[in-house]
Amino acid sequence: MMRDLRSFGSLRRLPGIFMVLVGVIALVVAGCSNDDSSTGAGGNSAIQPTTVDVAKQSDIAALLPAGIRESGQLIVGVNVPYAPNEFKDSSGQIIGFDVDLMNAIGKALGLTPVYKEADFDKIIPSIQAGTFNIGMSSFTDNKEREAQVDFVNYFSAGIQWAQQAGGNIDPNNACGKKVAVQSTTVEDTDEVPAKSKACTDAGKPAIQIQKYTDQSEATNALVLGRVDAMSADSPVTAYAIKQAGGKIVAAGPVFDSAPYGYPIAKGSSLVQAVQKAVQYLIDNGQYKAIAEHWGVEAGVIPTATVNGATS
């Protein structure tokens, strides 16, 4: 469920997450809810922000548009929650993988990121209007969006299934299995139904698709053993696995991957500055350290590209 269609209210922004068994469930609920309150996405049980030592890179900062460089600030449009990439902790602070990485980019550029919340579908128009310098909301880079803005690609996200520890679920042969999805995500509308149809076309039982309003409910159903597997966006699944304390594990690799990107006004030299800053963090290990902290290292990339959409 990429954040392509996230304006429809779904996860993959098709377009947050997350004593004995009760303790495990409480942990998952605290980390998975779409609620921004203290018991919601983030909560006290969620992974806390991390910082990395990054010195200002004067040669990269020299590429910044004069107005941004002189202001000392990078105005970032963001939509929450979408754990673990961007969501709020119990104090209302926006945290997550994207936030830690953007903060590191800011250090390399000698800028302080200033996060401004907005509806997801209003971020790109606000960048075009000059209200925001950059967007940071797990945007999937695609050709349609590249007609409006440029993208600096920084991550690869796809779909990944999870199962209970000790399970033996094959996402390509889950006929007759109960599979949890969040309603209206691409996993619900496209991916799992297509797999189910392949089963019935082959004369096998259909997949029993179990739909849940929130991703936290789908994750909890798996932890409790009410379903055999769940399907979600790859960083969502990775974060749920990390939060669940060993109760659930990946069921196969990430598939149907596409790049996440930071949208920036077309033709702005901020594009080159951000691309080189991300590449600097990749080359020096800070990028990987941040990804590992949030449990999303499966999506790291070796090269920060510009406008890398393939469809």
Automatic annotation (TrEMBL):
Spell out the subcellular localization from the entry.
Cell envelope
What are the protein's UniProt keywords?
A: Signal
Which top-level group of life is the source organism from?
Answer: Bacteria
Pfam families in the record: SBP_bac_3
- GO CC entries: cell envelope
CDD domains per UniProt: PBP2_MidA_like
| SUPFAM superfamilies, sorted | Periplasmic binding protein-like II
Q: Which PROSITE patterns match?
A: PROKAR_LIPOPROTEIN, SBP_BACTERIAL_3
- Identify the residues that the record assigns to the Solute-binding protein family 3/N-terminal domain, covering every copy: 73-298
Protein family membership: Belongs to the bacterial solute-binding protein 3 family.
State the protein's name: ABC transporter substrate-binding protein
What organism is this sequence from? Answer: Gordonia oryzae
